[in-house]
């Protein structure tokens, strides 16, 4: 089960340099958007992912792929291939109170067709923690409950 909150980020208001944190170079595409069936290249790892419907909480299953299988399926993607850099940042750097000390911010900086879009996601162990979460002040609009910012929907949009 994936339980996450998602926020729009103004890159000019980041209180740090993303390059100071580990980065994942991600490329992903969607074979189906309802239900979500995605392929992803994460650095040199490859996955096929199924996600159920939902906004904050969704079932998620990841299966490993070979590079050849990924490249074969890539030609069957519906919509655009999404490219982004994901920086993994300890939330404790910004919030020291509460039960957030072990959580991480996944900061996605999109490129190519989605250049300029920056999203932050935080994953939680349970819905109660997710719903009571108070984000750092530099987080922008909460788009958790907007399917518009699901990557599967971004892959289908013609304009950002």
In a few lines, what is going on in this structure?
The protein is mainly beta. The protein is built from three helices and ten strands.
Can you give a write-up of this model?
InterPro entries: CYTH-like_dom_sf, CYTH_domain, NeuTTM/CthTTM-like. Residues 1-160 form the CYTH domain. Pfam families: CYTH. The protein is mostly beta strands and 160 residues long. The protein has a single domain, classed as Beta Barrel (Hypothetical Protein Pfu-838710-001), CATH 2.40.320.10. The protein is built from three helices and ten strands; from the N terminus they run ββββββαβββαβα. It has helices spanning 67-74, 127-131, 151-154; strands spanning 2-9, 23-33, 36-42, 45-51, 57-58, 60-64, 82-90, 104-110, 118-123, 139-142. Strands 1, 2, 3, 4, 5, 6, 7, 8, 9 and 10 form a ten-stranded antiparallel sheet that branches. Strand 3 and strand 4 (45-51) form a beta hairpin. It is globular and about 45 Å long.
